[in-house]
Amino acid sequence: MFNNTFKRELKNGNPEAYRELFRLLYPRLKGYCKLFVADDSEMEDIIQDSFIVFWEKRSTIDIRQKIESYIFVIVRNRCLSYLKNRKLESKHIPYEQLHATELQHLYQIDLLEKEEISLEESLSKLLHELVNELPPRMQDVFIKCKLEGKKQEDVAKELGISLKMVEKHIANAKRLIHDRLTDQYPIMTVMFITFYFTLF
Fold first, then answer.
1. Distance, CA of 57 to CA of 182 (rounded, Å)
2. How far apart are CA 6 and CA 12, in angstroms?
3. What CATH number was assigned to the domain covering residues 120-199?
4. Pick from 178, 179, 180: which is nearest to 193 by CA?
5. Residue 147 DSSP class
6. d(CA 176, CA 135)
7. d(CA 120, CA 124)
8. CB distance 98 to 81 below 8 Å
9. Domain spans of the chain?
10. What is the distance between the alpha carbons of residues 113 and 120, in angstroms, rounded to a whole number?
11. Nearest to residue 50, comparing CAs of 62, 36, 34, 33?
12. How far is Cα 187 from Cα 103, in angstroms, rounded to an integer?
């Protein structure tokens, strides 16, 4: 999307280049922020702060890399920090009591360097871990209905069980997954359900 000449202008701190970058990326960034943050004013602050961070770290820009990825990683980190702070404030959870695994999810990304694993990959991995912990028959029903998108009636016939039993398995699976999420990954719960809203 952005050529090397434009990237050099950004790296050299050209204000016009930054205004153009903001104009082009703002709609996409706002839509991305909505996955995490509902409040419009908070979204605006996050995006603007992200561009300030980007400006401050402009000397580290590698013109061989996509500029969009720099910005989106910064925005995502600030969204995650916002959610973490809100969770701590609302639940009064001491920082030291947060599970180490969850902190790894939140801070696994170096702001401007290599991204080890994307948020989408992280949430997908978490989903499969949670599903794999379900009892075998419940897991089978949940995968067929929710992940493979099969109709409940078809799954009931395929597995030789009643439609009511299929519905019960799905309801119990949702409850178990949600309980495990809120217990082990309280901060990630909002993002997880946002990404996988069709499952719940």
1. 35
2. 10
3. 1.10.10.10
4. 178
5. I
6. 10
7. 6
8. no
9. 4-111, 120-199
10. 18
11. 33
12. 9
Tell me which DSSP letter residue 98 carries: S
| Structure token pair of residue 53 | 């961070």
Integer Cα distance of 70 and 78 in angstroms: 13
Helices and strands (DSSP H and E) totals, the chain: 10, 0
SS3 assignment, position 47: helix
pTM confidence score:
0.49
Q: List, in sequence order, the alpha helices (H) in 57-151.
A: 67-91, 100-107, 119-132, 136-142
pLDDT digits (tens, 9 = 90+) for 111-149: 333 444 555 666 777 888 899 999 999 999 999 998 888
pLDDT tens across 81-106, in order?
887 777 655 555 454 444 444 444 44
Query: Which of the listed CATH numbers 3.30.379.10, 3.40.50.10350, 1.10.1740.10, 3.40.50.2300 matches domain 4-111?
Result: 1.10.1740.10
Cα separation of the two ends of the chain? 36
Report the candidate in 11, 12, 82 with the shortest Cα–Cα distance to residue 44: 82
CA distances from 36 to 74, 82, 84, 112, 189 (A): 14, 9, 11, 21, 11
